[in-house]
Amino acid sequence: MGDSVQKLIKEYKDGNKEKFLLIADKMEPLISKYVRLLYKDEKEDMHSEFVLCLLEAVNSMGYYQEEGQCIYFLSRALKNRFLELYKKSKLHFDSEMVMEDDFFTNMDMDQSEFEDCVFLEDLKGLMGKQEGKQYHILCDIIFLDESDAVIGEKNLVSRQYVHRVRKNFYSLLKEKYFK
After folding, report:
1. DSSP string of the chain, one letter each residue
2. What is the pLDDT of residues 61-116, one digit of tens each?
3. Which residues, 6+ apart, have CB-to-CB distance to 150 below 8 Å?
4. Do 45 and 89 contact (CB within 8 A), yes or no?
5. FRET label pair with 127: which of 23, 96, 117, 175, CA 20 to 30 Å apart?
6. CA distance 25 to 10
7. Model pTM greater than 0.70?
């Protein structure tokens, strides 16, 4: 399965700077998760921002003797950067969609993968109740992470209609999960 994060950090700190790429690969699932949650911003820019955060975290680490502590430190640094970027994004896009912001604010970032899987299955169940264009629009919103304008063009509907479908779906989610 390869080297541990702790070993890669030690080798990086000892001067083998190429090891950072392997550290970034190991942390890629978490970085991708945070990039997806910041969907309003440019994906490539956000990805670069998180990789830079990871580099800063690795460089600032003073203690890297245990695997669990290394991973915790790096994941905590990424989470803090996510929260910082989310707050900036929220201020910038606050007037755009209040309900959507409430949904992400109430999201528990420490939930387990099991809870993520259960949520995904619930999400698919809720989507299964939709029909026709609404179903395709929701698939584009959730799985392809496209903007309202792009989805509207693709499905031959107005951007406002896509926004209304998005808003109604977020209301449904809010009702189901945050009563």
Report:
1. ----HHHHHHHHHTT-TTHHHHHHHHHHHHHHHHHHHTTTS-HHHHHHHHHHHHHHHHHH-----SHHHHHHHHHHHHHHHHHHHHHHHHHHHTTT-HHHHHHHHT--TT--HHHHHHHHHHHHHHHHT--THHHHHHHIIIII---HHHHHHHHTS-HHHHHHHHHHHHHHHHHHH--
2. 887 778 888 888 888 899 888 888 888 776 656 545 555 555 555 555 555 665 66
3. 140
4. no
5. 96
6. 16
7. no
